[in-house]
Write a structure and sequence with these properties.
The chain is α+β, with helices and mostly antiparallel strands. It has two domains: 4-178, Gcn5-related N-acetyltransferase (GNAT) (Aminopeptidase, 3-Layer(aba) Sandwich); 189-417, Gcn5-related N-acetyltransferase (GNAT) (Aminopeptidase, 3-Layer(aba) Sandwich), CATH 3.40.630.30. Helices cover 30% and strands 31% of the residues. Strand 5, helix 3 and strand 6 (131-137) form a beta-alpha-beta unit. Helix 3 (108-124) crosses helix 4 and helix 6 (202-211) packs parallel to helix 8. The chain starts with a strand and ends in a 9-residue tail after the last helix. The mean pLDDT is 91. The structure holds coenzyme A (COA). Residues 252, 257-258, 314-317, 322-328, 350, 354-357, 359-360, 363 line the site of coenzyme A.
Length: 423
């Protein structure tokens, strides 16, 4: 990579790949900015429970250090990452980050130059990125304006999505810029699996899965009777159901319904990234013991703060049970589960191609029209079978101000006097 030279108020800067030694300087710049509420870094974005997020960012991304050529100290970092928001491993969306130390933070021109380099690196890296996304707090006016000037367009606004020191909870924008006029070709399945098996080796992932405790909801199991009389028990998944549950996920993805074909390409990834990180709650028909559907609930990837506990869910109704209006009812079940699990806001997404889910959402909000808002889209975030590159439509729903959203236990109890047709 050619070393790039930039000037900031007489300081000459050079850019190169970051080394392992740069990691602590990068962490310091990020934590100082977070504490000072500067440079678009959230106060709890990379700290405490989210420390893992910073580790992931620094280890799985391309990190470039910007050094003072005289003193050889790191003054800024540029990061180009496979986007955390994309719902495919084989992503065409790059997340860009620019972090500056306090000497450079008031220098807008240097931000412009660093951003231009970030765009250039995302294009030059042979990773197939065709769009770039930048996540920016609405209060970081200067950054927003400079992104706009570089051709980034706001595609989503997450209410209260980030917490900036000295400001408090603040809206967060996703801004996107196209990097290439061509559509990204997908990598072959063999190539993808070769790379993924290195990061998620089957035996090691299996051992970790077996040795770990799955997240569970302590208020389950509970009986629930759907409006059509179908009686189910809602329960935490059993550890040995991992393969079965992955098959349900895969079969929806293979049908091109709701999930990307490369979203979770192997069982090892499913165990590590989904089952160890999500509450997996299964709806089991009492009369037959068949699984009717399930939901996977976790913290939302679209939030940059732990405050307000944003939750997201992935819903499945098995093929043989679809078309009976269970989906729209299950959406309310998910919200009640989220509430009882301590989440305050649902911040979720649905693929634009997923007509059934969109219809379910529409019909489930007939009674409460203000239930959720669609707050934007992530373009080209996911590749759906039979459809191609697809957009993720983001929905936001603050159920603290909606008293009709009950805890699940209460909701389930209220259904018990419904007609039980299948018992
Ligand atoms: C999405 C899903 C949960 C909906 O559950 P369901 O039990 O099938 O839902 P419903 O019976 O309430 O039907 C949903 C709506 O889709 C409509 N629908 C049915 N078949 C459809 C089709 N082929 N194309 C478009 N819409 C269709 C129904 O008419 C209904 O709309 P309405 O309420 O306005 O009449 C279920 O289909 C599913 O698990 N799909 C695969 C995984 C998935 O997409 N999960 C959601 C990810 S965000």
């Amino acid at each position: 990579m050619p070393r790039q030279c930039l000037l900031s108020h007489g300081i000459q800067l050079s850019v190169d790949y970051a080394t392992d030694e740069d990691q602590s300087a990068c962490r310091n710049i990020i934590s100082d900015s977070a504490a000072a509420g500067k440079d678009n870094v959230g106060i709890d974005e990379f700290s405490d429970g989210m420390a893992n997020r910073l580790d992931l960012l620094l280890t799985l991304s391309q990190v470039f250090a910007v050094r003072d050529t005289k003193t050889n100290t790191s003054k800024a970092f540029i990061i180009v990452a496979s986007s955390l928001y994309a719902r495919t491993i084989d992503t065409c969306l790059a997340s860009l980050f620019v972090f500056r130390d306090k000497d450079l933070q008031s220098d807008g021109d240097i931000f412009d130059q660093l951003l231009q380099l970030a765009i250039y690196f995302a294009q030059a890296l042979d990773l197939g990125y065709t769009s770039a996304i930048y996540s920016v707090a609405a209060c970081a006016h200067d950054v927003v304006q400079r992104l706009r000037r570089q051709g980034f367009i706001r595609v989503a606004t997450i209410p209260c999505g980030v917490r900036i020191a000295g400001v408090g909870l603040c809206d967060n924008f996703f801004m996107v810029k196209s990097l290439s006029p061509t559509t990204r070709p997908r990598r072959s399945v063999d190539e993808l699996h070769r790379d993924l098996d290195k990061v998620y080796p089957h035996d090691q992932c299996y051992e970790t899965y077996q040795a770990s405790v799955l997240p569970t909801a302590d208020f389950l199991p509970a009986k629930y009777i759907f409006a059509n009389g179908l009686a189910v028990v809602c329960r935490n998944m059993k550890k040995q159901e991992d393969g079965l549950i992955y098959e349900i996920w895969k079969s929806a993805a293979a049908e091109g319904l709701g999930y990307g074909i490369d979203e979770i390409p192997t069982l090892s990834i499913f165990r590590m990234e989904i089952l160890l990180d999500h509450y997996c709650i299964v709806f089991e028909e009492i009369a037959t013991g068949n699984i009717v559907g399930l939901t996977l609930i976790t913290s939302s990837c679209y939030s940059r703060t732990k405050e307000n506990r944003f939750g997201e869910s992935s819903l499945f109704i098995k093929k043989e049970f679809r078309g009976q209006k269970l989906g729209s009812e299950a959406i309310w079940i998910e919200l009640a589960l989220m509430k009882q699990l301590g989440f305050k806001v649902s911040l979720n997404d649905t693929l634009a191609s997923n007509h059934r889910m969109m219809a379910s959402m529409q019909s489930s909000r007939v009674k409460y029209p203000s239930a959720w808002l669609f707050v934007g889209v992530i373009p080209d975030g996911c590749y759906a079978e039979g459809y191609g590159w697809d957009d993720q439509v983001i929905s936001w729903f603050d159920f603290q101000s909606h008293p009709h959203i009950k805890n699940f236990t209460e909701l389930a109890d209220e259904t018990l006097n419904r007609t039980i047709s299948k018992l």
